[in-house]
Amino acid sequence: MKLVVTEYSVKVVLVYVDDLLITGNNQHLIDDTRKTLHNKSEKGVLLNQRKYTLELLKLGGAKPASTPMKTNAKLTTVEYDSIVRNNDNPELTDISSYQQLVEKLIYLTITRPYICFAVQVLSQFMQHSKRSHWDVVLRVLTYLKKTLGQGVLLMKGPITSLTTYCDLDWATCPSTRRPVTGYVIQLGDSLISWKSKK
C-alpha cells in the first residue's frame, strides 16, 4: 500500500460582525479573494439582515404590501377607546407574541430605516395591545416580504460632508395630540442614523 501526500491550497474567510479576516497557505488565492471582494463592492457595501428577515417572515404575513402602514392610519390606546366608547377594537388577551415581534422589528430597523416610523408607533402599545395594533405588525411583515433584499448602502469614496435632515408633524398623535418628529443623518452619501418619535 502506497500513501501519497499532496499539498492542498487552503483559503479561509472569517467574518465577525463588521470585521473580515482572509488567510490561507496560498498567497495567490488570498489576493484573488481580495480582488473579488473589491470588485463586488464598486458602489460600496450593502448592509442588510436578509436571513433575519426571512426568519421573521415565518411568524406571519401573507400577500406583500407596498408600504409598512396604511396612509393616515391612526392607532389609539385602550384608554382613548374607553373614553370615546369604541368597542370594535378589543385588547389582545395574550400580548407576548405582539411584544416579541415588535422587539424583533426594532432590531431590524438597524438596516431598515423605512420601517422606523411604523415600529416606533407599534412600540408605544407594548403593555396594552389591541387587534388593530396586531394587524399593523402583520402589515409590516408583508412589507418586508416585498422588500427582502433591501438594506443600507454605505457608499464608497471620500467623505466630504455630514448632513442632517429633520421634520416635524404637529399634533399628529390622536391620543395625546403630540407632534411626531424625525431625523436622518448622512455621512457623505451614506445613511448612518435615523429616528422617528412622538
UniProtKB/TrEMBL annotation:
It comes from the Eukaryota. InterPro entries: DNA/RNA_pol_sf. This is Reverse transcriptase Ty1/copia-type domain-containing protein.
